[in-house]
Design brief:
about 110 residues; single chain
């Protein structure tokens, strides 16, 4: 059995919880293609460097739901993030190009 991951909280969000947050976010008017989180949610830019940049973005800071999603994703492991992305991607939300160059395809 693995131990705790040092830079991640023990009570990090689950994949179903974050997926539900993202589904509610997409349902908001104007967010059908990811809204202010388009590059993360639709394009799969879920690495820490991108998510931390979102935290500093005024557009995200003024959208409580977007900020909650970013914070939840940052608390997750990279494996959890890939599961979230592949889960909502398969249900029709993700519009990302599925090529071998896609940032998440290398670890699927």
């Amino acid at each position: 059995m693995r131990g705790p991951i040092p830079d991640k909280p023990r009570n990090r969000p689950t994949v179903p919880e974050v997926r539900e947050m993202i589904e509610r976010f997409y349902a908001k008017p104007g967010n059908d293609s990811g809204g202010v989180l388009h590059a993360a949610l639709d394009d799969g830019n879920l690495r820490n460097v991108y998510l931390k940049a979102y935290q500093k973005s005024k557009c995200v800071q003024t959208d409580r739901d977007a900020m909650a999603i970013v914070e939840a994703l940052l608390a997750m492991t990279s494996t959890q993030r890939r599961k979230v992305y592949s889960t909502f991607g398969r249900s029709g939300y993700c519009m990302a190009e599925q090529t071998h160059d896609h940032p998440l395809n290398e670890v699927r």
